[in-house]
Amino acid sequence: xxxxxxxxxxHAGQYPTMQPQDAVKLIYQNEFGCEHLIxxxxxxxxxxxxxxxxxxxxxxxxxxxxxxxxxxxxxxxxLKEQDAEAIFDAMRQTAAQHLGSEDSFQLKLxxxxxxxxxxxxxxxxxxxxxxxxxxxxxxxxxxxxxxxQHHPAYRVVLRSLAAAMSDQNF
Length: 170
Description:
The radius of gyration is 16 Å and the shape is globular. The chain has helices at 3-14, 20-32, 41-54, 84-97, 102-117, 125-133, 144-150, 159-167; strands at 64-68, 71-75, 154-158. A three-stranded antiparallel sheet has the order 1-2-3. The longest helix has 16 residues, at 102-117. It is 55% helix and 9% strand.
């Protein structure tokens, strides 16, 4: 079983309301990391600080979720505003070191389709096809149902950087 299949199945188990949109977001992040978020450094840092403040009182079971390709979704819940600069620095390093390709992304979407065909994801192939027919390409937000059920607040960074931050009592 491929790393991506293991990642998709783990996420489906952890997040049973995952929709095609959420799985495509996961695959996009697995392939391309966080490079699409680095365009406006000052604005992104301020947004990150606000999001950390909004999630400071929330509890999180894990510090991060593995998404494959050496990347994790680093949860913002329970962090402090002063952590924002370290996270943003990790995002910049991740964007510089992790480059993806459209061909690889398309192959990963096919892997997801096979899991749908085997009834291993919380949505079927017809639901996936219907969503993909309107997929604009590129990064997408989580589905409304995923947001309402799981309240995602995280940043994609290299696992090694997340581990180093955790070692510093992050």
